[in-house]
Amino acid sequence: MSHLSKLDGYFAENRDNHLAELNEFLRIPSISSLSEHKQDMQTAASWLAAAMKRVNLDNISIDETGGHPVVYADWLHAPGKPTILFYGHYDVQPVDPLNLWETPPFEPTVRDNKLFARGASDDKGQVFMHLKALEALFALDGTLPVNVKFIIEGEEEIGSPNLPQYVEKNKEKLAADLILISDTGLYAPGKPAVCYGLRGLTGIQIDVRGAKGDLHSGLYGGGVQNAIHALADILASFRDEHGTIQVEGFYDNVRPLSEEERQAYLDLNFDEEALKEEVGVKELFGEKGYSYLEQTWARPTLEVNGVFGGFSGEGIKTVLPAEAGAKITCRLVPDQDPDEIVALLKAHVEKHKPAGVEVTISEFDKGAPFITPFDHPVIQAAGRSYERVYEVPTAYTRGGGSIPIVAAFDQILQLPVVLMGFGLSSENFHAPNEHFHLENFDKGLRVLGDYLYEVSTLSL
Amino acid sequence: MSHLSKLDGYFAENRDNHLAELNEFLRIPSISSLSEHKQDMQTAASWLAAAMKRVNLDNISIDETGGHPVVYADWLHAPGKPTILFYGHYDVQPVDPLNLWETPPFEPTVRDNKLFARGASDDKGQVFMHLKALEALFALDGTLPVNVKFIIEGEEEIGSPNLPQYVEKNKEKLAADLILISDTGLYAPGKPAVCYGLRGLTGIQIDVRGAKGDLHSGLYGGGVQNAIHALADILASFRDEHGTIQVEGFYDNVRPLSEEERQAYLDLNFDEEALKEEVGVKELFGEKGYSYLEQTWARPTLEVNGVFGGFSGEGIKTVLPAEAGAKITCRLVPDQDPDEIVALLKAHVEKHKPAGVEVTISEFDKGAPFITPFDHPVIQAAGRSYERVYEVPTAYTRGGGSIPIVAAFDQILQLPVVLMGFGLSSENFHAPNEHFHLENFDKGLRVLGDYLYEVSTLSL
């Protein structure tokens, strides 16, 4: 009997119990951002610790962090075998506006084979699946084929303010061969995805000052520099007409896409027409020589996020503005370094500073990009496990956004990161009526169980 | 005995009476913008009509306009002689903040040979001077050497909404050989100025739209156009690095400066260092090949008055903005046409529209530029009258700003306009503690009396 048949049988038999247990977890309103839920955070952490105990994990602890606690556990009785570090979070987003929920957010309800509850998909449901995958292997084999460690935090929805420090402090304790995170989504319904890279982020604000105050455009116009014109000249200098960034050295450390990656993206047959419809544009726009997926997954960006200066009310005010500013962020890709990029941006602005104004630059928070090589065994193994269950080719994707905590794991623990998620972008994370397609709950449990066997065969 | 000696004697003898009479006029709180002063507007108009009667003018009428009335009068008993149309306004600005006035705005007070009151300089004091100049000539000669007409309006401080229509309707009645306005200033203390040109104004708003809503800069950044970048590209395309406007055809109808004008400006020895100090810039900025005075008086401009788009709060928001906009105005010089310039701006934006966005343009109100040729006899005569009294060379200037009603006179009545003012830019028009230097009240009366004789000798 194959692993998968055994897992099938086990999960089918225990489905009702599993859903009932997950519902207990979902009923705890563990909203990390609201202080009135502080006690609920402790309750959720304790529930998780108890659930880990039922799964037979060792060294379970609820670790205080200064914020909401981290729940730790491990099982390290597979000598010579790889160790997987599981990461997830037990905190959830607020639920406002409550009146838009068809059923209350903390009363889990199944409709149409979807489980509706805050946290069903993001991320309690997926954390729960990790535990149940282990439980299945213990039940079927009396042991696990790999070593495992868990850190489940309670502050992901508020930006993980305490986790990097916790990870740094427990670096040795958290040592592993890979980190597995199920907090992302499938590529599309029925089409699983392993996300093997995310973009990083860095940003600056540019403030331009001309005269000491706004001037009358009649009396002074033509003889004194206008702060908005100066700013526009700087902003226009950043990109060419296709969006290719003109900052000297900006692309120097960009890791080129491999032929395999480009082919993998091409095979996804991305529907650009559907995208144009979705965002409401007549034409897409971006760096020549790259497809939309390449542009948004594997190429860096420089975007003005906001601009301000002068009079923006109704009608006209003939002012010669003294001040103008812009906020700019860059999405970065491996191997760009956020600090280096900020230095390049500063040098660029200095070089392109128009006459007649002073320019100051301030920096925003930074996050590094991350990538686990596309052909890394832990990535390819994840793809195989997905394919065995979903019976279609796995999509190998990157994310255009940034998950700072993933970059922190990458940097502090220096582990390959496997983002193997089961959500769908239509499932209203962070919005009313969050839900989780139970089809992916069921399949995901099987994928995760299979993946433990897959990893056990790897030499890492 | 020369004209000037006779005028000197007359004004010296009557100074106290004149100031007492002016104070009556200044005590009327004729604030045109505030509806609670509607009755005061009528009072001020009636006071003016009575003052005109004392001067011996004919055909005095208080003409309703739909807003505050226009006061008309004339004296047309100098056959074969030129006719001067005097324009001024009896309305004043609001007085807030009242607590900043050292003495109440409607209780005229002399301190340090300056008359403090709302309207002392702008424009009741100067209107009163016109009347007293005529009164002096009647007293000295029993007649006037020229024909005169007066229109004194009550809505200048609210943009003269009804005057163009009034002028259009009374085109024949207002026919004259020149229009004389004393609502501007000296070039500097002790240095008189004839202003013979003003810039016009036209403006557009540019609205750029990309996607149908703001997008996540991680998920879409690199593949969808950013409305702010697109706008910045358009704005940057308008001017080169020296501010020279790059809109095709923009300068085609600009009347070149004559050598005489350039020399006259040069002779003013404009202090650029003092200007830099005043506005707080390290360097001036503008079109190459022109001095600061030429840039601001005789060259057109294109200024962004305001820009907006995306996130402008504190910190960072990684949005890919769908919308951005800018407000733009151009100061125009003869013989640019506001409608033609708007058409050129539109064509320019169309030509420079970046990919991936839609751009819409809306128009603001327009005002034509005006110029009375520098060497026109009425301009040169004004210069001579100033010089006779102030005993220094007159400055021949233009104004960088726009006075829409002047352009309207120019266009409707097609008269040479003589801007012959006696204020100083330090006199707080529109601000608390407005005042008028009585030195210029005294000298101005003599200049105006002299000018009537000057004009009587011209063949117009």
CATH architecture of the largest domain in chain A: 3-Layer(aba) Sandwich
Query: What's the assembly state of these chains?
Result: homodimer
Q: How would you characterize the largest beta sheet of chain A?
A: 9 strands, mixed
Name the helix and strand elements of chain A from N-terminus to C-terminus, one letter apiece: HHEEEEEHEHEEEEHHHHEEEHEEHEHEEH
Rg of chain A from C-alpha positions?
25 Å
Tell me the strand percentage band of chain A.
Answer: 15-25%
Low-confidence stretches of chain A: none
Text of the CATH class of the largest domain in chain A: Alpha Beta
The largest inter-chain interface, given as chain pair and residues per side, is: A-B, 82 and 82 residues
Question: Helix segment count of chain A?
Answer: 12
N- and C-termini, Cα separation of chain A = 27 Å
What would you call the structural class of chain A? alpha+beta
CATH superfamily of the largest domain in chain A: Zn peptidases
* Overall residue-averaged pLDDT value of chain A: 96
